[in-house]
Amino acid sequence: MTAPNLVIRAKQVVLPQGITAASIHILEDKITTVANYEDCPPGCDLVDAPDSSILMAGLVDSHVHVNEPGRTDWEGFETATRAAAAGGITTIVDMPLNSIPPTTTRAGFAEKLAAAKSKCSVDVGFWGGVVPGNTSELAALLGAGVVGFKCFLIHSGVDEFPNVTEEDLRIALPELTRLGAILIVHAEVPGPISRTGIPAYHSAVENAATAHDNRVLPISPHRNVCATEYETFLASRPRAAENEAVELMIKLAREFGTRVHIVHHSSADALGELRAAKTAGLRITAETCPHYLTLAAEDIPDGATEFKCCPPIREQENCEQLWAALGDGTLDMIVSDHSPCPPEMKLRESGDFLAAWGGISSLQLRLPLVWTEAQRRGHSLEDLSRWLCAAPAQLVGLQNRKGKIAAGFDADLVIWDPQRQFTVAGQQLHHRHKLTPYEGKTLSGVVAKTFLRGRKIYDDGEFVGEPRGLLLTRTASTSSSESNL
Fold first, then answer.
1. Strand 149-152 to strand 128-129: parallel, antiparallel, or no bridges (unpaired)?
2. How far apart are CA 70 and CA 98, in angstroms?
3. Is this structure's pTM higher than 0.70?
4. To 10 degrees, the CA torsion angle through 241, 296, 446, 332?
5. Which terminus of the chain, N or C, has fewer Cβ atoms within 10 Å?
6. Burial of 321 (0-12, 13-18, 19+ CB in 10 A)
7. Backbone phi, then psi, for 95, in 5-degree steps?
């Protein structure tokens, strides 16, 4: 066997079979051997992790809104992937909306790939989109390399990515099943939201234009509605909207045999339905996000629109049920749903929850946010690795390459200290805009070093070398900038 050119070793290595002292032998970009801690061949480079540190597979985040091209002032591949590297994330998967054009046609996907080329500090995959009328594009998009498809059951917030109805899905699902493609679903339906009688004013993009014009948005003209109170916003997105959407997708998954994944799940009321569907053998999975696991509606101040996201952050008792569902496997993974925007779109001056853009930027903080709360509830490092690494990799078809420390896998690794604490300061975050609901929060778990395919890309606060992230597609390309899944 060819000798490794790099060995990374630690006293606490999270492996599929458990935590142990080990040395990871790396040749070029792959792990060749997981060996005993003392096994370090002469002549190779050696990285010794401190005894207090954890060596874990690089994180995979399958739910990231990069927004480039078209809305690069919201985020962008350069800034998003630097934030990922600083957070121990070595692979992200970009969402098909909030960019212009959206990834709903092969031509739109080509523009996305061109925009990302040579800018990425970590490896990047791509979701395609299902919108009304684009069923004929799905095969071409899958052939061009998307990992699967995303749809909304309610207005997405941007008009160029319209939501689908049940009738639209009955057209698209047979094609997705034929292609063997997964459909990931923003699972809120509009009926229960409309029945609250609490209006959203207009699209977030229109709100942004208003903010740029320096006009003051009015507080809701509807009687007995105070748009600066978080309770008003929470009431406007009731659990029933998620519950009914989950019921619909379970019904359609059963009818069409399509693989379905529920994104950013927040309603504890629907967990029983999901659990029963999985027990019955339906091809359905679900994720949740750090903000639903670390924040509670009761603690959100009036006017603090940086906390707005859709579905909303719910009550503490709901949060605890989500943690229990992670523990029993009803929820499969934790992803960021990194959904940034310019600060003015949050309308922080007016504090209007109903009109502000909904989305939380947390890409860099995913590991410490989850670990801080997971350890308090008795969850293990193995649980953490499954939720943040292995399960998202499997979702997007990377389970034989990413998300685990094993021979033959990409040498994507993170060294981090689980006990070291830090206080979140927005200006220290590397994504484009710094407004965060986690400002001032004390977290445990500091990323020290991140390795992408055997090369160090982040080292104690510094980025190392030029961007070398691959664009992960299903095409046959194996050039320096693209790689087949």
1. parallel
2. 8
3. yes
4. -30
5. N
6. middle
7. -75, 155
C-alpha distances (whole Å) from 399 to each of 287, 291, 386, 485 are 17, 26, 11, 10
Q: Which amino acid is at 126?
A: F
Task: Round to whole Å and give the CA distance between 334 and 63.
Answer: 9
| Chain centroid to CA 206 | 26
Give the up-direction half-sphere exposure of residue 232: CA atoms within 13 A in the CB hemisphere. Answer: 24
SS3 call for 98: coil
Domains along the chain with CATH numbers: 59-399+419-444 (3.20.20.140)
> Which H helix or E strand runs over 26?
strand 18-27
CA pair distance 175, 457, nearest whole angstrom: 40
Beta bridge partners of 108: none
Cβ neighbourhood burial of 292 (10 Å; 0-12, 13-18, 19+): buried
How wide is the angle at C-alpha 90 spanned by C-alphas 309 and 18, nearest 5°? 100
- Closest by Cα among 301, 159, 294, 153 to 229: 301
Q: Which two tokens mark 317? A: 């008792």
Residues 6+ apart with CB under 8 A from 213: none
SS3 at position 325:
helix
pLDDT per residue as tens digits for the range 52-96:
999 999 999 999 999 999 999 999 999 999 999 999 999 999 999
- Which pLDDT belongs to residue 484? 62
Question: Taking each helix axis from N to C terminus, what angle separates 239-256 and 166-179, rounded to the nearest 10 degrees?
Answer: 50
Q: Give the span between the Cα atoms of 463 and 457, in whole angstroms.
A: 6
Helix axes 271-279, 239-256, angle to 10 degrees: 20
- Contact call for residues 417 and 446 (beta carbons, < 8 A): yes
pLDDT < 50 positions in the chain: 201-223, 476-481
Closest CA to 356 of 236, 475, 485: 236
Would you state the structure tokens that stand for residue 452, as one six-digit string? Answer: 């992408």
- The CA distance from 314 to 228, in Å, is 17
Could you tell me which of 390, 436, 479 has the C-alpha nearest to residue 83?
Answer: 436
Residues 61/392, Cβ–Cβ less than 8 Å? yes
Q: CA 236, 352, 214: angle at the middle one, nearest 5? A: 145
Distance CA 447, CA 461 (A): 9
> Which pair of structure tokens corresponds to residue 251?
């019904």
